[in-house]
Predict the structure.
Amino acid sequence: MASLSSKAHVNNLWNALVALLAPLPSIFFYLSFLCRYSAAEADSLSPLWAWCYHHPLLLANILFFLNVNLLFWVVGLLQSTHWMIDLYWTVLPVLLVHYFAAHPLAESNSWRSRLVIVLTWVWSLRLTHSYFRREKWQWGAREDWRFNDLRKQYGKHWWWVSFFAVYVSQQVFLMGICFPFYVVHSKYSQFNMWDVVATLACLTGVTVAYFADSQLHNFVSRNLRLKILGQELVPNLDEGLWHYSRHPNYFGEQLWWWGLAIFAWNLDCGWSFIGAFINSLCLAYVTVLVEERMLKQEYRAEAYKKYQKTTSVWIPWFKKQKEA
């Protein structure tokens, strides 16, 4: 027992080290570019640094592809688990917002820029805390259950399918929903009421997601204690925010990204809503998968069917009257 505990501790430390070192290639490269730029005029930069100067959005995508898609994928293959992308969903937006804010071509309203950066940190801290609490404060304890299902589905082909299913797809989603960061730091306009609306939407989304995740965590922990005691499990969470929505955590997460898109829309980039829209479509698909999984669990299937009939899917709302 002691040896198993010691091995788990070593694995946890190793995964923590891997996760902390993983983004360093991109960070060091970008810092090198900023140092070269600060030490020289834009016209006197070498071809490489000049290209980085003139193409901030393309550079961000290339760094994402090389550092996240390729490097994280190789690490995942070596470890036989793609756990790290889940963790970095909570970190990459913070790296991206600082990337765009620090780029030499950045142009923004200082108040809007600072506000978006602070909001992104608040969102990230909330989600990172939720992630580690769910994982019992372990690094790389498990990978997303959807990846496990895909691993079984594709079998021996999973090693190469995972590159596209886990990593390339994440780049499309993350760069799409984080595009408002680029817009905020590429256009200047006076701070106005729409920025206040966007801020309220973002803060409301983060707050709803935090309480929804906390209530879900307490529910799961309570059922785990009941299972250990050999008592009957509570089949369904139907209290707090979950009394008014079957997926209030998803609602809060979507509200955050739509709020972020309002910042960009306010700067005459309405098409930046596409990222938030695609994210909502993905969460709609995930909602279907989660609910199918719930209905496959015998002890909760009947209760969940009743829950589906009376409770809103995403947007918190009053209960529907049960059918007679």
In short: The CA atoms of residues 17 and 193 lie 44 Å apart. The chain has a mean pLDDT of 93.
